[in-house]
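In this section we walk through a basic example: taking a raw amino acid sequence and producing a predicted 3D structure, encoded as discrete structure tokens. The instruction is simple. Fold the sequence below.
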Amino acid sequence: MQVAEVGILIGSTLLWAAVGSFVLTDGLPLNRPRKAIVVGLLALWLTIILCLAAFARDPDGRYAASPLKPWFDRLSSKKGLCCSDADGTALSDPDWKSNGGHYQVRLENRWIDVPEDAVITEPNRAGRTMVWPVYYRGMEDSDTRIEIRCFMPGSMG
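The resulting token sequence is shown next.
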């Protein structure tokens, strides 16, 4: 899970817990001080979200001038846009394999099947094998679930 996603999750939880405590404790409508607190919390939450989103993708701007940036921005599989929910990772040849038209990738020292609808079918302009994983982390490392949003095979060799 990316830092921005963690911030959004924590911020949302805290915000709704705070709003719920003001709105639901006595069942009375919001009075002026309560409205100000709720509006302030909403504004703070929105500010945090926008700041985290600004740093979530390409924080140092190193890819902004890449001639492939527009291509990556619109790159998609049947699951949707690749770069919208996940950062792409280039894979070395030992970290992916093909068997009978099905792909597997090695992430966090385990082999993960690539779903058919995650495979990008257009020509690979980057040349490298790439995967866009989405991590769902649990409380323990063993609870981590990895979903492949997009996969783009390169040339083995």
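Looking at the output, two observations stand out. The longest strand covers residues 129-136. Residues 27 and 153 are 57 Å apart (CA to CA). In the next section we compare this with other chains.
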